[in-house]
């Protein structure tokens, strides 16, 4: 469907950069997150010809890629990035990794030297293709202005396709992902040469049909009377998916779990509550103990995030049969879950989480009470980006389940530095919804300049910066890998004091108003004020060392 | 040469991590710059057993890799990095790219999942090898505790070898580089398993001999009477190399130039002054116009950093004969230059730059006067890390040539975000020398947390943050690539106002004392105070828009 907002006159004089932007717009991509350089200047200049395209400046590429991930998770449509050559791509890799794990639709545009310039091995020359290949389900280097239009349309189509449909096979057991990272490498002379034409958008794939035999086979497992677990991920964590799962749970007695750090999960009051799998492998083993049928809907078999000496990494109980539902990544997972619920639970209603009583804790802030404050005061229909790591693992899920209904975006690829960019992109995607970013101190320091973009774009993001002044998760992991520490040298590598990071100063320095809270009361007051006022805010929540001090 | 500081008792109970650290120490590597994760916890714990090893915590991997680059440039020995899996490597790629271009010896250690865990495709799994291969002259994945000692020794040897000797051929025309990026991938179970033994250090390569016929052939070009240019890079920019070049210049009338952004160049009062090649291709063409013999010593044929429409990228004059001296990357470049000077200029003394009169400018700070302040007040034997980009291109070389003698470290790979990390590593390498970092505002935001490491380690670094509130170089590049801009959309992507970055707040938030200067007098006062006081300082030099306002 062409929107025909481009006059033919303009079309005939397009260079490659303009054809690329025109094709993106025609394909429904109207935002890009950019940290450009010389080789991308034509794409920057082309912005002036297309006022419908919103170019968002990021001061670091990891902010651009993480923001594109947040945008794609919230809209189901890709944003584009604009990165400068191999080093720019390198800076964006960590959050492209998270986007790949999330199944986010994302068009990753990397500028390159002019085609005739590459053999000279100029200072910024590097092997972009090899690096990009490690995160991209689809990768193409556009060879000429004759191809740039159709290559752009193909990139958008690939971004909207499930990964294996786009050529990646590793995630084949994960169903219901909405998209892929598609990388388009654009040489500078392809951007600046005339004679390009935009391409009509590619037709989106239609979901693969799910046969009745697939539904029946899974239904039989639920009806077997054996202990059955339904593990949800991807689109199964949408409200519709959760309602279907709750009906199945009510009717069959199966237990239902969610991925720990989801791409996007609806939760809170009025939404079926599904507990997440634990972080620690030993706890997941307890959760799944005795399971005879493990039904995977939009997720993969659970594995330990890391290996630990003497422990198995596989977490599916050895005696369990694994059923992948609906068995194809390109099927409509939510529709399939609905059909399954209709078979297993006709007339059964889902159980919805009640709104929890608003109990505001008091006393010094600590790991046990901060999440209660957020749960009590979370605004309606917020988007919650969670990179609270250790500060949230024990208490956040319980605090959020009775909060106002919201979308939760998690750390899908475990690569830290995601929270602030993700919140930035989510806020661009949903300008009328409040965004709350729960961010750990160590993780914040990878992509902190996302705050500047939030200020530049006047985004309604409230960041709660959880400052425990350490890489707390690594202290725990040090013990778990059986490492013997005897001295200060190792301790210094996990400690973020000396000097203390002052996040109020850091946020203020990037134009984001900031306050500091050391008590639960202060956090409540500051959080309520921040979400009530438009624009970005940051609250540094300094967590005390002693959870026993909680009131 | 084993130093035998490890008792045999400890040796017999070593795990892979301890054997790795012991081998590094025995091989002369006693610093690593770390941003570790779970898979590197054994290496962190092993620090406690080796107090000679200095583990430096960085809050972002690009700081670690840039610091290792600075350390290697100043010592000629590699520092190690410690990075967490593929995403950690990704974050470190941009400054590894710069280190590769600098020919810096660097042992890049990347932790990975346990060998038996990789096939599970856990959340942080990615293709580390393909990514690392794009920046590494040497790359090995250590397969077992039986191999970790010798693999570590091999990594150090590779880091101390010229790139093509280590397997990379692209830089074959660049002589006199001191080292390479050697990447060692260490699976977690290799780190934690017992039974490893440290390995004796590998013998360093001896320089390849330079035959008399090589000296004679180049000498003939200098004696030809034709216009001859000697272009210096790498080790040729050491004081000894520059003295030899100056003698040749005096005796033969050849013109001498230096690479614009050198790995390490000695300059200032008492050192032969060599003008750098310009940044813009058209200016380099003017510099080299009419050259009949182009002698490359430690550098490669000049090429345009980027391609521009309608301009050739090659900058060697078409009529020039190119001579690579001494023709092998693994030769001793400085010794060869000395021999050449003895042949061409017996008894001729080099011309040394005089100390310039200390004229301190006054008036509002701008691109024309800030460098004069630094040149006038630079302390003796400073290390100057230059990432001033547009703010320094026109005025810094002239200001530094008459300053106190110093080492200049440049942006070798053109990948921004290098200055602050480079200064951090240089200060660790040379704790008794003052380090001055000249840093552009846009570039600073990629790796700003280097300031925290400077504070943590009490490093004597004075950062002059040149704030022109824009990506000024991109504004210039926009014109040069022939891009037509007509509106605000493109301008917004090159502008760093709205909000203004407050670098005083940002530095203070990371524990570095900071001040702001808007006049040349303030900069002089604050710079003199900062270099007089140990420890890190930052001065935000706000550059006015009108250079005509300079007094």
UniProtKB/TrEMBL annotation, chains A, B:
SUPFAM superfamilies: Thiamin diphosphate-binding fold (THDP-binding). The keyword Protease does not apply. The keyword Magnesium does not apply. InterPro entries: THDP-binding, Thiamin_PyroP_enz_TPP-bd_dom, TPP_enz, TPP_enzyme_TPP-bd. Residues 159-180 are annotated as: Disordered. Residues 415-540 form the Thiamine pyrophosphate enzyme TPP-binding domain. Keywords: Thiamine pyrophosphate. This is Acetolactate synthase large subunit. It comes from Amycolatopsis ultiminotia.
């Amino acid at each position: 469907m062409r929107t025909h907002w481009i006059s033919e006159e303009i079309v005939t004089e397009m260079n490659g950069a303009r054809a690329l932007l025109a094709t993106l717009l025609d394909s429904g991509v109207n935002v890009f997150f950019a940290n450009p350089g010389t080789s991308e200047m034509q794409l920057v200049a082309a912005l002036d010809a297309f006022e419908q395209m919103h170019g968002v400046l990021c001061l670091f590429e990891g902010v651009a890629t993480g923001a594109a991930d947040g945008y794609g998770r919230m809209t189901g449509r890709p944003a584009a990035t604009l990165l400068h050559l191999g080093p720019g791509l390198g800076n964006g890799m960590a959050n492209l990794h998270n986007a790949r794990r999330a199944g986010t639709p994302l068009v990753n545009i990397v500028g390159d030297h002019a085609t005739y310039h590459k053999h000279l091995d100029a200072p910024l020359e590097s092997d972009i293709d090899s690096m990009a290949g490690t995160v991209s389900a689809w990768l193409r280097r556009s060879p000429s202005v004759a191809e740039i239009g159709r290559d752009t349309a193909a990139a958008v189509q690939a971004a909207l396709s499930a990964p294996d449909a786009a050529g990646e096979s590793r995630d084949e057991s994960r169903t219901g992902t909405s998209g892929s990272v598609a990388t388009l490498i654009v040489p500078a002379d392809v951007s600046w040469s005339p004679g390009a034409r935009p391409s009509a958008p590619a037709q989106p794939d239609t979901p693969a049909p799910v046969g009745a035999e697939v539904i029946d086979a899974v239904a039989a497992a639920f009806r077997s009377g054996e202990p059955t677990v339904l593990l949800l991920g991807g689109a199964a964590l949408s409200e519709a998916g959760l309602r279907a799962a709750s009906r199945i749970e009510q009717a069959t007695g199966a237990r239902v779990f969610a991925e720990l750090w989801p791409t996007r999960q609806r939760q809170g009051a009025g939404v079926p509550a599904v507990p997440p799998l634990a972080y620690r492998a030993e706890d997941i083993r307890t959760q799944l103990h005795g399971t005879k049928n493990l039904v995977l809907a939009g997720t993969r078999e659970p594995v330990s995030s890391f290996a630990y000496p003497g422990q198995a990494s596989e977490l599916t109980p050895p005696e369990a049969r694994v059923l992948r539902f609906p068995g194809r990544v390109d099927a409509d997972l939510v529709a399939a879950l609905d059909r399954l619920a209709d078979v297993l639970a006709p007339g059964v209603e889902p159980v919805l989480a009640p709104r929890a009583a608003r109990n505001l804790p008091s006393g010094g802030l600590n790991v046990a009470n901060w999440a209660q404050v957020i749960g009590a005061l979370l605004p309606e229909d917020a988007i919650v980006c969670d990179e609270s790591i250790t500060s949230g693992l024990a208490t956040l899920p319980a605090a959020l389940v009775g909060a106002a209904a919201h979308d939760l975006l998690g750390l899908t690829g475990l690569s830290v530095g995601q929270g602030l960019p993700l919140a930035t992109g989510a806020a661009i995607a949903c300008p009328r919804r409040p965004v709350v970013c729960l961010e750990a101190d160590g993780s914040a320091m990878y992509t902190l300049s996302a705050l500047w973009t939030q200020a530049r774009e006047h985004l309604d993001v409230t960041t709660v910066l959880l400052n425990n002044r350490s890489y707390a998760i690594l202290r725990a992991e040090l013990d778990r890998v059986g490492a013997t520490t005897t001295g200060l040298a190792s301790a210094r590598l996990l400690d973020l004091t000396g000097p203390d990071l002052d996040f109020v100063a850091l946020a203020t320095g990037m134009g984001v108003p900031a306050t500091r809270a050391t008590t639960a009361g202060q956090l409540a007051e500051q959080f309520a004020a921040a979400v009530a006022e438009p624009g970005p805010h940051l609250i540094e929540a300094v967590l005390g060392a002693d959870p026993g001090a909680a009131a």
